[in-house]
Amino acid sequence: MTALAAASGGPERAGAAPAAEPPASEDRPGRLPAALAQAVAALLALTALAWTLWHGITEGRTALAFGVLIGLGELARWGSARTREPAPLGAAGALAYALLGENAGHHTHHGAPQVIAVVVAASLVAAVPHVARGKGPSPDQVARRLLSVGFAAVCFQPLYNSGLLAERVGHGPYFALVIVAVLVLTALCDAVLAAAMAHARTRWPFGPLLRDELRALLGIGSAVCATGAVMALAVAVAGLWALPVFSLPLLLTQLSFRRYAAVRATYRQTIASLARATEIAGCTPQGHAHRVARLSKAVGRDLGLFEPDLTVLEHAALMHDIGQLSLVDPVPEGATAGLPEAEQRRIALLGGAVVRQTGVDPAVAVVVERQADPYREQPLAARIVRTANAYDEMARGEGPSGALGGPLHALERLRLATGRDHQPEVVESLARVLARERSGPRGVGRG
Amino acid sequence: MRSVPMWARAYILCVTLAGASCAVSALGPHTPWPAVALLAVLYAGCEHEALLDRLAGRTGAAARRRAPRGPGTLFPVLLAGVFLLPPAAAALVAVPGALLARADRRPRWVRRVWRAAQLALASWTSARLYAALGGPAATAAPDFPYVLGPAGAAVLAFACVLTVLDGGILATAERVPARTAWRGLFARSLAPVAVHGLAGLMMAVLWTSPYGPPAALLVLLPMGVSCWAFAQYHHERAAHQATIRALVQAVDLKDRYTRGHSERVGRASVLIAEELGMDDDRVEVLRFAGILHDVGKLGVPTRLLRKDGPLTPEERRVIELHPEYGHEMVRGIGFLGEAREAILHHHERIDGTGYPYGLAGRQIPESARVVAVADAFDAMTSTRSYSRARPVAVALEELDRCAGAHFDPVMVAALTRALDRHGWHPGVTSDLPGRVPDQLGDQRGNVPPELPAPSASGPAAR
Fold this sequence. Notes:
A: mainly alpha; elongated; B: mainly alpha; 22 helices
């Protein structure tokens, strides 16, 4: 909320900047893992297609039915490139085909290459309308889909077609367990791959990214895997009729997720406009809340916070100045820096009271209330908001914008205030985030 | 039990007895008890709120605030029972779950018993029909697509029984007129029950297959996830509505003479919109338009809003910026749609003398014309520091007098008709004591006295 603390934290040592962070690191965000995954996926697709063309398609009707299902699922794709699972039905259909061993009691003979070829062909056809509208799936998503389906097919099909599975496990409940095990393995590998790709793209720490991916598995991921398993087993028992019958429940799941995502987006917009209220009232400069939210979220990621905590952090940062609305006269230019600390705390408490009336997580209100306290008494999210806010106010307030003076000087002043007001780790993380921001346009901006 | 009317008591008793008599024949030797027990435990486990909450990782306050679940999110288990078990056993599946479930309102035990009896009766009927159509053999074969016929009939019967019984309880306990009690109930329940029926059928088919119950349980996972997403959706939606209210309360912080005004304008806008026959989505948007119409006052300095004394022309101009501020604020909220125009234009007048743009007649968006009338109506019928509340009839007369010059006559007529039909129940205001500490403590919440001597300048000139 204010930069006062930083200003009063120590003697002015302007220009000294002894501990300025190393110059913007040279290594651009490494795209290597993502490029590698894409190359492997492309190679896999080409090999599978060639193999299938050469050997011909076995059990054409089954292949066609699954191809149509996958195609329809992909057609129903929604959301942006960042949506977790944009086409659950397509994914479930592909997994089911990879794990299909019987069709209405008769053995199937398609191998892993044919599975991949069918998935590729169906996805390509279904992608045409999306690409025409300029909303095609991203290369990363396509690569992930192919690799995970390929993994499942390669694990299961040779084992099954060689008869080993029937010999060891038989066709009872244990067979179902094997299928589930293969799916769990596939999902884990997929999560690791996704986290690695995100890590390469954004350079956020790998651990929290992986944990977020694993958490997402519990949501729509588990529904997709379970549907894949059920479809494979149900086709084995009841034939291809099982496909339409069980597609509907998954479509329902997709629909609920879509509504959930829509209401989340709306909610975020509303919170953002509540945040803009302070700007329109002239309490804070234009775009301040958004900048602080963006920086806070980036620092939170850098410090390894997880997705739910990041949401709390973002909402709190958006609304951190809301207490100023209850002032009869706005603080000129939002420069709360000039206010005594007791006054800052009072405004923070007023803000917390407003936030408590919104439906947001009570944790958000706590962060807003405690943002002016010394850092040792604050929860981590409040420390981050405090530092990001102070940085934004200082970087904006002094030095020619964009030149060396402003931001670096602001960082330096934050470092001087680490005795009481700002946590050293948070300030250093902020420095890393800023360095990363300068070195490449990717990354934090898209958080 | 005291609050339950006599007729409802008799009705519940009858249904309970019927349900019990359905289930009692399960005590014979042909009941597959392990399957019944497994399904009943599943149903009870899913029905139990705490378990769902724990699965979703929510605790404490978030769990307490959780939204009501949709109707019958757990029907797949019941319907699988219908497809798998003899009728009497199928009736038993729902009983423990329904008796253990959380009831939201009193009298809790009556509600639980009622729910159990209702589900037992529906399951029994539907299983009876399924057996009569040769379903069980077709499930075990499994004989697709033939089995879809009996299954469809069973699902239909299930939904029918639920609807009929629900309508009955509405008519007896809630005293909804019998004619309207059943309206819409069936159509609303059919679609979800049909989808859950397909899931239940898949469960039954896998259950009887060599892969056995473990494979059948997998079917529940997507349904559970879907149910979780549904609950999350309601949770977020409630939070969102609370945030909208917070926007309104933030206005109240600054301009305290209007406590509850926003909510009431929202309600009056809804009355007008419904009277004009708008569809539900538009009515909802207009409700938000009414609630948020003054949100731009957040951008007006508090000192001006609370000024005690006549406003200078300069100050008046600043206050008149509030529609534009409001529009600027809510611009980014996609779902508000035409409500954003209503916020921008709610001070325009039909004769073109309003602000901010001086639009006239049909140039003014319809939503803005609705909100303008609702705003003026509430301004006149509520007590302000500068004027006493006037009776509804007087206010309507006044509106009618200004129609054509100030207001759209269509909207005024609609409001008059709507109030004739429904009456006006301003109800509670949003004024909850002790919510927000206030800078000025006890300063008078007041308004510039030169504001409308209403008949002269027209009401709600602010």
